[in-house]
Amino acid sequence: MFSRLRSDIQCILDRDPAARSTWEVITCYPGLHAVVLHRPAHWCWTHGFKWLGRFISHVSRWLTGIEIHPGAKLGERVFFDHAMGVVVGETAEIGDGCTIYQGVTLGGTSLYKGTKRHPTLGKDVVVSAGAKVLGGFVVGDGAKIGSNAVVIKPVPAGATAVGIPARILPSKAGASADATPEGPKFSAYGVTLEDDPVGQALKGLITSASSQEHQIALLWQAIEQLAARAPEGNCVPQDAQRQGCFEAGKLNDLVGK
C-alpha cells in the first residue's frame, strides 16, 4: 500500500512542475486524495458492499470535486491534475500512467445495465481539460485527447484526437503527433503542433485549386502565343483568364496556418 502511495506521489512530482515537495503533494493535491479514497471504495464495491462503496465515493466527490464511480478500475500512477469536475463512469478503465485534467468526462452512451458503457484508456493516455470520452471503446496506449474534444469512437495508440466530434491525428513513425520533443518526456494537455484534419484538408484543396488556376493561365498564355503566329488570327476567347488571381494565402489565413 505504501509502495503504491509513493509511486502515486512521485508521478505527481514528475508531471507537475508546480509540485515542490512530497508533503505539499500529500496535503494539497485533491487528485491524489481522490485516487487514495477510490481504492477502499472499489474494494467495497467488488466485495459486495455496494452502498458503502458508493458512500465512500460520494464523500470523496464532496472533498475533492472528482467523481469516480467505485466500480471504475484505475491503474498505477494515475494523475488527476487540478481535476475539478472530473466524472469517471462505472465501467471505465484507466491504465497505468494516465493523466486526466479538469472537466473531463469518461461517460457512457448506453442505458443497459451490465454492459461495457464507458471507455477504456490504455497506458500513458493524456485527456486534456474539458474533453468528453463517451462510449465503451478503447483509447490506445500513449494517445492524447485535446482540450474540449468529444470522442465517440476508438483512438489508435499514439494518435491525438481533436475537435467536435473528435478527428484523429495519427502518430508518425510510431511517435505521437504532439509538441513533445523526442524522448520519453511528458506532454501536458496533449498539445499538438499538427493542424486539425479538416483544416489540413481545406489547405490541400486551396493549394490544389491555386495550382490548377496557375496551370490554366499558363495554357492560355501558350495558346495566345501560338494564335499570334497563326494566319487565321487570334483564337483566344476575350474572357480567357491569362493571369492567376486565386488568393490562396488569404484563404489559408482564414482556415488557420
How is the topology of this model organized?
Blueprint: H1 2-15, H2 22-28, H3 30-46, H4 50-64, E1 67-68, E2 73-74, E3 79-80, E4 87-88, E5 93-94, E6 99-100, E7 105-107, E8 120-121, E9 126-127, E10 132-134, E11 138-139, E12 144-145, E13 150-151, E14 160-162, E15 167-169, H5 197-229, H6 248-255
Parallel strand pairs: 1-4, 2-5, 3-6, 4-7, 5-8, 6-9, 7-10, 8-11, 9-12, 10-13, 12-14
Antiparallel strand pairs: 14-15
Helix pairs in contact: 3-4, 5-6
Contiguous low-pLDDT stretches (5 residues minimum) are 174-181
Q: Characterize the overall form.
A: elongated
- How many distinct beta strands? 15
Strand order of the largest sheet: 3-6-9-12-14-15
Give me the secondary-structure category.
alpha/beta
Helical run tally: 6
Average of per-residue pLDDT values:
80
Terminal residue distance: 49 Å
Q: In percent terms, what proportion of residues is strand?
A: 5-15%
Sequence of secondary-structure elements = HHHHEEEEEEEEEEEEEEEHH
Alpha carbon gyration radius? 27 Å
- The helicity comes to 25-40%
Major β-sheet annotation? 6 strands, mixed
Give a short summary of the structure.
It contains six helices and 15 strands.
Brief descriptors of the model:
single chain; 257 residues; alpha/beta; six-stranded mixed β-sheet
Would you write up a description of this structure?
With 257 residues, the chain is α/β, with parallel strands linked by helices. It is built from 6 helices and 15 strands. The chain has a 6-stranded mixed sheet. Strand 14 and strand 15 form a beta hairpin. 31% of the residues are buried.
